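Re: that chain you flagged

S.,

Sorry for the slow reply, it's been a week of failed gels. I finally had a moment to sit down with the sequence you sent. For the record, here it is as I used it:
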Amino acid sequence: MFRRAFWFTAGAAAGVWATTKVNRKLKQLTPESLAAQAADKAVETGHRLKEFALDVRAGMLQREAELEEALGLEAPVDPALPAPRRTALGPGGPAPAHRAHPYPTHPYNRNEDH
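Prediction finished late last night. Pasting the structure tokens below so you have them in one place:
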């Protein structure tokens, strides 16, 4: 008698456990849940990329300061002179607006054909 009651209770508990586990997994696989998980991962990846970019920028500035010090480029600046412009495009800065594109722009829009 006790054996049957024990196995009945054990079977019922296993059934409840399995049903709960399956229902949780089904809720995780709904489109809303999958979209929320993807959005969370995207936000987390964005934060990691931002941290990485900030670390790279800090390292770059530190190395640039070391190189300037080693090369003796830390010269005192005359306050009467304008501050030098530092751009990635060279000493002249960005190209003027009329020379920004080597080819003329056309009013033709390819998206209008579709």
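What I noticed first: The chain has two helices and no strands.

Talk soon,
D.
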